[in-house]
Amino acid sequence: MIFWRRALFERARRCFCDMSAASLLRTVCTAGRPAICLLAAIVLFAAIAAPGQAFAHAALVTTEPTDGAVLAQGPAQFSLTFSEPVSPLMLSLVRPDGTPVPLTSFRLDGHALDIDNPQRLGSGTHVLSWRVISADGHPVGGSVLFSIGAPSAAPAVSEAVDRGLRPAIWIGKVFLYVGLFLGVGGAFAIAWLAQGGRSGRRFVIAAILCGLVAAPLSLGLQGLDALGVPLARLAQPGVWQAGLATSFGRTVLVALVALGLGLLSLVGPRGGAKLFALAGLAGVGAALAASGHASAAEPQWLTRPMVFLHGAGIAFWAGALAPLGLAMRRKPAEAAPFLNRFSQAILLVVAVLAATGFVLAVIQVQAPAALLETAYGRLLLVKLALLLFLFTLAAINRWKLTGPAEAGETEVQTRLVRSIGIEMLIVLAIFGVAAGWRFTPPPRALAIAAAQPASVHIHTPKAMADLSITPGHVGPVAASIVIMTGDFGPLDASQVTLVLSKPDSGIEPIKRAATKRGDGTWRVDGLVVPVPGRWTARLDILVSDFEVVKIEAPIDIR
């Protein structure tokens, strides 16, 4: 596996580096600092290895019927409520015999998805299988089990997993970043900072071409992921339509325009080069703001402009590195004005990057503990460590090497070229880490998911109940109870007591009397669940002065 990743890194590097840029990187690696190259390569691929699986990015909050419910008759419609707006990709009902029935009639109402039930359901356990696309452009799937009359063996619902799809999505994302940041950003640097200089043009054109290939390919991979189908179906038109229908489709379309403008600034009329390059740089920010975790976060009047500025700032900084390094290496005297303009502008750009990055991180992470407790937070820590290294190196370049290099000191110019090469390696590593966020929900989304209730349906011949504990994790919670007779009739109980027990943790049973509300439900407030795991929930239902019905079932607390 290690050798495969190293070979992949070499192929990636060769794709967007011409001979001169490769020479620049080789100079860094052979200058007594091979550890830097190794570190960058390791971190670059840590993003794909860190998360163990792809997670849902929109949380399913409630369902109707509830998971595990036993109904007297089939419902007229199903309802799924999510933590953010979604669009359905696949909806089906699996009968007890395993036969899937597509569900094509549905309505979207804010965060709720209402689905019509087209047929009369027989007795037994059914599965409502769903797959939707969330507002951040990522697919979410799941299923809800419910029974008519009495439970039966649950029908099997299989989902094919293509283990090659996830690495392909990650690679496509990295190369798209190369095209946008190093390509379009490089075109802007050549037009505005180098004033049309020739150094680095071949590198920048190669990076843009990589982006032009990666963008549509990433769209197809997005469609595969959205539909949950393997790589072998990439050529099917429906896959590309599904990818285009997601918010990531907008990102790809805007990215293609930005890449085209960047390329046009290099090969088109010189008179319009600056205008095309500036529009391309704006397109980079717009492409990133069109989809993704940060752009989907609230308040969007703040997050989308922050993402726009952050993306444009990255392109300005990262895009200037290769043309500047190559210009310093080939024609140091002519590169002095380029270096001077870059050093003057970079301070403001770094300030914008730091401010926007801080705001977005606060919105996404919310609590400092999430930095260590979530995969998203750990990737952010890796990125911050790389950024600290990058900012330190950039500060040394700005205040220690720039002045002597502009003055023509050859040794300092050589050191600056090597330092710029190291900056590029760190930037590539940051691209790899950022691409790993495609598979990790931000803590803000996890917090919404954690607030979901833990629910269980308890069914016995004498009585049945729907029990919900909100939120469904340890700490202060509230319990809501709906009780009925075993044949779905009304049950007029005079008292209901909830008993939670977990003998394997040495915790004595927690017993609380429920209060009846005006709508007929029973509620327990002021309840604290001390530890996570599988608890036993028992309901003591006082039917009369002489009869108590006790029903129980396991319930999982996060």
TrEMBL record:
Top-level taxon in the UniProt lineage: Bacteria
This protein's name: Copper resistance protein CopC
Transmembrane segments: 174-194, 203-224, 244-268, 275-294, 306-324, 345-363, 375-396, 416-437
Record-level GO BP terms: copper ion transport; response to copper ion
Single GO MF descriptor: copper ion binding
Topological type in the membrane: Multi-pass membrane protein
Record domain CopC: where: 57-148
Keywords per UniProt: Cell membrane, Copper, Membrane, Metal-binding, Signal, Transmembrane, Transmembrane helix
Compartments where found: Cell membrane
Residue intervals of the Copper resistance protein D domain: 337-437
PANTHER family: INNER MEMBRANE PROTEIN YEBZ
One Gene Ontology cellular component: periplasmic space
